[in-house]
Design a protein that fits this description.
- By secondary structure, this protein is an alpha+beta fold.
- It folds into 2 domains: 7-140, no CATH class; 168-294.
- Helix content is 54%, strand content 14%.
- The chain contains 8 helices and 7 strands.
- A 7-stranded mixed sheet has the order 2-3-1-4-7-6-5, with helices on both faces.
- Strand 2 and strand 3 (57-62) form a beta hairpin.
């Protein structure tokens, strides 16, 4: 993470003046990352960081002028600024760290939390959802970048499930009567009910995938990266949010499972009634033919 900052790109992207950019120490750099699937048995791509095995994702660094693909939902940026004991203490106002915080804050939306800041053993970190800054000795860049990106991925997944559920309550409440009784008029919505049930199950799978990270126990012996990860989870209330969303998903799963049962029962009952009527009609036809034969025989 020691590539030189592209001054022109930084001015456009960070909206900082050139004097502020020149204030960054030599060796500062900005990395752009996207999260892509890591296929089973495949090796981590070049310029990529493999996340925890259970997540099945890798953070791929976009090099040069490479643009994200249509499948890349978001681009995450990490600013690394070398800081050693030879620099001015961060307990005071160190201009490069102030500029790093401003760079991080520039990406925060009005409805998002402000910039979070933490310091551990000479490493100083500022982050929002899409931008992160690391001010530390260069040998810590790799482990801290991987830690921040793993948190960013799990946070984005958690937030996506939260937002999807928040937008789905009204529809679920409209579907609730079907969980009690399925009627003829509900046949038109059977396919939509099945699709909603599938979406709920997929959300549950996404939530389960990040569960081991959200509830990860303390690492022993602790490392700088593990302590940062623990603090990130605490600041993001990840364990609490994960449990709360799990409780909400249980409600959705229960409702749409009942809808599925009612739809199946209705379809089976309707099929049974149709079969009964077919049998009755066949019996009536047989009776009519028998009576006709008897009348014909009597007439003869």
């Amino acid at each position: 993470m020691s590539d030189a900052v592209n001054k022109t790109d930084a001015i456009d992207e960070v909206a900082l003046d050139s004097d502020a950019l020149r204030a960054l120490p030599e060796g500062s750099g900005v990395g752009r990352f996207v999260f892509r699937a890591l296929k089973s048995g495949a090796e981590t791509a070049d310029a990529a960081i493999s996340l925890s095995r259970g997540l099945g994702r890798q953070a791929v660094r976009l090099t040069g002028d490479a643009a994200p693909t249509a499948q890349d939902s978001e681009v995450f940026r990490v600013l690394t600024v070398p800081f050693t004991d030879a620099n001015e203490s961060l307990s005071g106002q160190w201009a490069p760290f102030d500029q790093a915080q401003q760079w991080v804050a520039a990406a925060a939306k009005p409805d998002e939390l402000p910039v979070n800041i933490m310091s551990f053993h000479g490493a100083h970190i500022a982050w929002t959802r899409r931008r992160m800054a690391i001010v530390s000795s260069p040998e810590k860049f790799a482990s801290l970048t991987a830690t921040l990106l793993e948190y960013a991925y799990c946070e984005s997944e958690l937030l996506a499930v939260e937002d999807t559920l928040a937008d789905s309550w009204e529809q679920m409440e409209r579907d609730l009567p079907v969980a009690f009784e399925f009627k003829d008029r509900d046949l038109a919505t059977k396919r939509q009910l099945a699709e909603r049930f599938q979406r709920v199950m997929l959300l549950g799978a996404r939530l389960a995938k990040i569960g081991p990270y959200a509830h990860s126990p303390h690492h022993h012996p602790p490392t700088l990266a593990s302590q940062v990860a623990e603090r990130l989870r605490e600041r993001g209330r990840m364990a609490h949010r994960h449990e709360a969303i799990g409780d909400q998903l249980e409600v959705f799963e229960g409702v749409y499972e009942l809808c599925g049962h009612r739809a199946s029962e209705f379809t089976l009952a309707r099929g049974g009634n149709t079969l009964e009527w077919i049998i009755i009609i066949m019996l009536l036809a047989q009776i009519i033919l028998t009576v006709f034969d008897m009348l014909t025989a009597t007439g003869t």
